[in-house]
Amino acid sequence: MHAWARTLAVVTVLAAATPALADGTKPSSLTAALAVLKSHRFVDLTHSFAPGIPHWKGAPDERVKTLYTVEKDGFHIEEFCHVGQWGTHVDPPAHFHAGMRSVDEIEPSEMVMPLVVLDVHAKVAKNADYVLTLDDVHAWEKRHGRIPKGAFVAMRTDWSKRWPDDAALANRDASGVYHYPGWSKEVLKLLYEERGITASGHETTDTDPGLATTKDDYSLESYILEQNHYQIELLANLDQVPEAGGIVIVSFPKPEHGSGFPARVIAIVP
């Protein structure tokens, strides 16, 4: 049995074997499952956001205005103004495709998933323009078994270690060409069309590698969203989670017809 399956199996078995409470009643299986989850390690895969953080080249900076203060009004309220694609954020299908699902239409059942981490950070350290290959996926499956249906697949590059230096994340050369890693079409097609994953994410500002986005080519991001799936950009701390065996919780507010919004992404790992 593979690591992610063992985690879910332990939750199920312990829930079924939960003894009765003092009053003779038996706690629900969800209560037991929660106890199992809380016994594991929680890792925040989210960057804090603020004005001046790294962001997509076409987005304006965030503005924060203080409206009320504790000293003057007895309470503190701030007004935040930023694009939906700000900080660690969700991109729904409607971000690229009119008429498809917006942020508020993503089902809660799509927000809790087995976590799969494709770790290519060593290759990226040698080649900033590295793109994921089918060999990377097959190597993961040789170690851990077939990528489970409904998984969240994250591309670990350690690019998030450049945060919060916007220039370092963009890695733009003297000719104006961006150099950062990305996905490949063949890998995305395998994951979404054959493995049936729910969502994917990465540490960079874009799905597509820098060499493509330099030419305003966002075809890989468009492909994911056209499949009626969402993605998460600008993930953090993937170096703190295992390749397999974890669970991820992806959450975000519910703006009506939203084309994107900051997200909170949490891994629960052995």
Characterise the protein shown here:
- This protein has 270 residues and is an alpha/beta fold.
- It folds into two domains: 37 residues, no CATH class; 228 residues, Putative cyclase (Glucose Oxidase, domain 1, 3-Layer(bba) Sandwich), CATH 3.50.30.50.
- 27% of the residues lie in helices and 20% in strands.
- It contains nine helices and eleven strands.
- Helix 1 packs across helix 2.
- It is globular.
- The two termini are 15 Å apart.
CATH superfamily of the largest domain: Putative cyclase
Lateral arrangement of strands in the main beta sheet: 1-11-9-5-6-7-8-4-10
Cα shape:
globular
- Report the radius of gyration as a whole number of Å: 20 Å
Q: How many DSSP helices?
A: 9
Strand proportion, as a percent range, falls in 15-25%
Question: Ranges with pLDDT <50 over ≥5 residues?
Answer: 10-19
Query: Would you tell me the structural class of the helices and strands?
Result: alpha/beta
Helix amount, in percent?
Answer: 25-40%
Number of domains: 2
Distance between the termini: 15 Å
Report the major sheet. Answer: 9 strands, mixed
CATH class assignment of the largest domain: Alpha Beta
Mean pLDDT: 93
CATH architecture classification of the largest domain: 3-Layer(bba) Sandwich
- The count of DSSP E runs of length 2 or more, i.e. the number of strands, is 11
Q: CATH topology of the largest domain, what is it called?
A: Glucose Oxidase, domain 1
What is the subunit organization of this protein? single chain
Following the backbone from N to C, one meets helices and strands in this order, namely HHEEHEEEHHEHHEHHEEEE
